[in-house]
Amino acid sequence: MSKLKIAIQKSGRLSEKSLELLKECGIKFPNGGGKLIAESKNFPIEVLFLRDDDVTKYVEQQVADIGIVGENVYLEANLPVKVLEYLGFGSCRLSLAVSKEVDYTGITYFEGKKIATSYPFILEKYLKQQGVNASIEFISGSVEIAPSIGLANGVCDIVSSGSTLMSNGLKEVDKVLDSQAVLISNQALGEEKQVLLDKLLFRIKSVLNAKERKYILLNAPNDKLEQIISILPGMKSPTVLPLADEGWSSLHSVIQEDQFWDIIDELKALGAEGILVAPIEKMIY
Ligand code: PRT
Ligand code: ZN
Description:
The chain has helices at residues 15-24, 52-60, 71-77, 120-130, 163-167, 191-211, 225-230, 260-269, and strands at 4-9, 37-39, 45-50, 66-70, 82-86, 92-99, 114-117, 135-138, 154-159, 170-179, 181-185, 213-221, 239-242, 248-256, 273-279.
């Protein structure tokens, strides 16, 4: 029987979350630390543990069928593979930064200057779009030290909290790209593998949908029910059950995580009580 091969990062910022996502999809692996390949016992899938820089290439070459990689790394590889899903972890941005002493007034600052980066392809495309002529110095690591050692006037690097830039005397001046982990796939999977992939994708979507939402339960006075329902955009419509207390009902629904605090304030203002918000593990449409 055919097996799906997924390439994920062996050790680094995406490793744990990638394995966790597979686990949340009900896919179990034996605990064999340090192995480069692991086979699941309960789903026809094999995991290849690789350096993140190799994931896109191996998916394109069909060494793996699918892979999880940072969108920044996938875009830099510039290979013909498909992005199937944005996974919501590994968030960061690719930004331009200069010495904090520079009086930066805009992207034209870089005209005729030199920028150090590990992302020459993305940067070149960006500079072209912006109409700026700058030379690009490729460095594979420790990009942040380039300006202080006189190698470049600025850098284009991954930023998340910004503390690495700060501790190297740099400031972020322009965002080139927002990035997060993506699920990529080879463009020519056979029929059998496609069936397995569809099954996996259905599970991944259910997990991701659930992460974005919360289950909410509350007690509401009957005369405010209609107004409360109108601000609760549930899956279809909220469930309403009468409470033993006359004039009150219990209401159950699902809300978007990011609307959470706004909605809670409105609900309280309408007299809702005993508000409970709980995580959802899976959400099937
Ligand atoms: O060994 P391998 O080649 O597999 O791993 P790697 O060292 O090349 O990659 P890794 O594990 O560092 O990152 C994997 C992916 O995580 C990246 O491709 C991004 O998509 C994503 N990611 C998220 C990050 C960061 N956040 C991040 N902060 N990748 C790198 N960084 C680095 C950045 O390069 C800089 O040195 O962290 C530093 C900045 O962090 P702040 O918080 O100080 O701004
Ligand atoms: Zn890497």
